Structures are given as structure tokens and as C-alpha cells.
Amino acid sequence: MRAVSREILRIAVPSIVTNITVPLLGMVDVAIVGHIGNASHISAIALGTMVFNLIYWNFGFLRAGTSGLTAQAYGARDRREYTDILVQGMSVALAAALLIICLRHPVAILCRRLIRSTPEVLSLMLSYFYIRVWAAPATISLYVIKGWFIGMQNARAPMWVATILNIVNILISLLLVYGFGAGIEGVAWGTVAAQYSGLLLAIAIWLVKYRRLLNDMDLKSALRRDRLVRFFKVNTDIFLRSLCLVAVFTFIPYISATMGEEILAANTLLMQLFTLTSYIMDGFAYAGESIVGKHVGARDLGGLKSVVRGLNLWGVALAGVFTLVFLLGGEWILRLLTEDPTVTETAKEYLFWSYLVPFAGYAAFIYDGIYIGATASVAMRNIMFVATAVFFCLYFPLAPFFANNALWLAFIVFLVTRGLLMVAARKRNVFGLIEAGDSFVSGE
To answer: CA 325 to CA 280: how far, in whole Å?
Structure first.
């Protein structure tokens, strides 16, 4: 079990570092404009970041789908397969980026009509948008490359890419803004430069470690219809699953706002505790994608069961640590996040729900990685459909009587439902892939 834990940590720790650096890109932009402009500049960056988050989220499935498929091909020692998966993912990424760039004017018009803000904020936001949109090819390509590296059991490469990307963003944004007085446009160009620097570094790492695979690349073979069908099948299921996830996480602040500013602010703070948990748990989920996929591809049932056991032990241990942290330091974390005593006191009324989150959610995080590694995308999608239906069916009848407590209860049950259903179905959808000798894509 020690060997399994070392293998898990070899993927999980760099992935956690990568996860932590990802939000820094938007935070740096906000911090810089916060010192050069007024509230309009900060609002413009916030809105611009929101627009790009909505756009890029729709292509985030490329990372997960690429990771699982690549890990299985790696486990099967099929060089042509994992090379083809990279070609397929990059082709889809570049096509998607081209579409985003071509639709930039209609998107801008839509933003003008839907976003309610002052003319000054909208003008600044669109200036930021029209520059940063040119980073789309690099941003979406990095999703694919990150997933491919993780599938190849290499979590350090994404970590270094994310770290260097953020350093470049800080340096170039500061140079353009303070050295050349470029304002919000300088911040946007800094982000564009950072994304392309990350892409160039990722390509350089690939050429150093995987140059030999150039001989296996066959664009015509990789993009055959039958090859693409499998790639899109897995990614479509993951996309639909993610759509449900976003529906739940969008509904929480939306419905919180109807309960008043204090409840909205309090729930926002409490969700930060969940976010803190997710950064760490996701690192172990990535380890699951990588190592589970490898064992499925190699048809190694014993190794697969060992790594699933190891991931579960780490999940339980982390859930215990986070529960203890929230019990002992939850109020301190709330005060760290805000100085408003009214918001803090409101959040403390519901803080007990945060004590339940780690154990309620650890299985959902861990088994997300396990199912992605097994490319059990159909089961993963269907379980998310059920959990999402449970969330809304539980909240609406209880809301008139329990208000915000009903929302948190529904969220806890949503997490538990996802985890329990995936645990219950693991024999058929994970272990069963090897026992039945199925193809890489479950459900075929």
C-alpha cells in the first residue's frame, strides 16, 4: 500500500499545486487594475473574466476526456493510440478556438444586451474582451495538453506550465501597465502573452520528453470518423455531466440572492470552504484519472483495486483533516475572508453545514477521477443526472419552511448521492471493464 500511496502522491501533489495557481490569473488582473483605476476598472475585469469563464468552461471537458483516454492507451502501451488522442484533442481545441474568435463580435453584442452596467464599465470590459479573446487557441489547447500529460502519468509538466504562465502574466502585465501606461488593455495583453508562453513551454516539454512520438503521428488516421466517434462520445458525456454541475453551482448564488444580501454574502463565504476542499481533493481525483486509466488499459485488475483502495483511504483521511480544520478554525477563516461583522455572524449560523461537506463530498471527488480514468462516462453522466434531480426535488418543497437551511441540505444530499451511487456502481463500471474485457469506452 505504501507503493500505491507514493504513486498517488506523485500525481496528486503537483496537481494540487497546479489547481492552486489556476485562479491566480484572474486575481492578478484584478489586483493590478485595482491599483491603476477606479471601481469601473475592477468591475470591467470581473465581468470580462466572468464572460471568459463561461466560454472556456464549455470546453473544459477536453481535459478530462483526454486524460482518461490517454491513460488507458498508456497502460495498454499503445503509442499510436495515445498519439492519436493528442492529435484529436488538439484538432478539436483549435477548431473551437477559431469558432470563438470568429464569433467575437456577436458575443460582444450579446454582452452589451445582457450585462446591465454603466456605459463606462461595458466599454472597458469590451476593450479587455476584444484583446483577450485572441488567447483562445492557447487556452483551449492547454486543456488538452494538460489532460494528455496527466494521462501519461506526468503531473509535473502541467504544474511547471501553470507556474511559469502566472509569472509571465504578472511580469508582462506590470510592465505594460506601469511601464507603458497601457491600462486595462495592458492587463489583457499580459494575459494573452501568458497563455501563449504557457503553450510554448508545454510544447517545449513535449518535444524534450516525447519527441519520438512524432514518427507515430498520422493526422489522416487520427481524424478518421470512427476514431473521432469514440473521442466525442466520452467528451459529450462528460460535457453533459459538467452542465449539471454548473446548473447546481449557478443556482446556489442565484437563489441565495433572493434571500437577501447578507445570505448571499454568507453563502459565498461558506462556499469558499468547499472550494478549499475541492482544490486538494481534485488533486487526488487527477491521480485517479491517471493511475486508474493506466491499470484499465493494462487490464491489471489487482493494481486497479489497489489504487481504488488507496484513493479511498486518502479521501477519508483528507475528509477527516478538513472536518477538523473547519470545526476548530471555521470562524477564523470567515473573519479572514471578511471584516463585515454582520456577514460573519450570518455565516456562523450556517457554518455547521460546512462540517458535513468533507465527508459528504469526498467520494464524489475521488470517484469522479476513478470514473474518468475508466472512461465510464455514461454511468458518470447518468449518476449526475440523478443527483441533480435529487438536489432540485429536495430544495423546492423544503425551501418555504427552511429557507437557506433547505439549500444547504439539498447541496449535502447532492454530494452524498453522487458519491454513493458511484461507489455502488464501481464493480460494473470500473472493475467490470477488465473482468468483461470491454473496450476503452464503457457502454459500447
So the answer is: 14
Cell of 381: 453522466
Q: Based on C-alpha coordinates, what's the Rg of the chain?
A: 22
Please give the helix or strand (H or E) that residue 392 lies within, else none.
Answer: helix 377-424
Terminal Cα distance for the chain, rounded: 33
The x, y and z cell numbers of residue 3, run together, are 507503493
Torsion, CA 40, CA 46, CA 48, CA 54, rounded to 10: -150
CA neighbours closer than 13 Å in the CB half-sphere of residue 319: 17
For residues 374 and 426, is the Cβ–Cβ distance under 8 A? no
The answer to whether 412 and 205 have CB atoms below 8 angstroms apart is: no
Please state the domain extents for the chain. 1-223, 234-444
CA separation for the pair 395, 251 (Å, rounded): 11
Report the run of H or E that residue 222 belongs to, with start and end: helix 219-222
Per-residue H/E/C for 314-382: HHHHHHHHHHHHHHHHHHHHHHHHCCCHHHHHHHHHCHHHHHHHHHHHHHHHHHHHHHHHCCCHHHHHH
Is the separation of the CB atoms in 283 and 15 below 8 Å? yes
- pLDDT 10s digits, 7-39: 999 999 999 988 887 766 666 777 777 777 666
Q: Angle at Cα 403 formed by Cα 397 and Cα 406, nearest 5°?
A: 60
Q: What is the pTM of this model?
A: 0.89
Give the cell for residue 283. 488533486
Query: Which cell numbers in the block locate residue 176?
Result: 505594460
Instruction: Count helices and strands (H / E) in the chain.
Output: 19, 0
Which grid coordinates belong to 33? 487594475
What is the C-alpha to C-alpha distance for residues 54 and 111, in angstroms, rounded to an integer?
12
pLDDT in tens, 387-401: 999 999 999 999 999
Nearest Cα residue to 395 out of 295, 293, 251 = 251
User: What is the spatial distance between Cα 250 and Cα 242, in angstroms, rounded to a whole number?
Assistant: 12
User: 129 near 270, Cβ under 8 Å?
Assistant: no
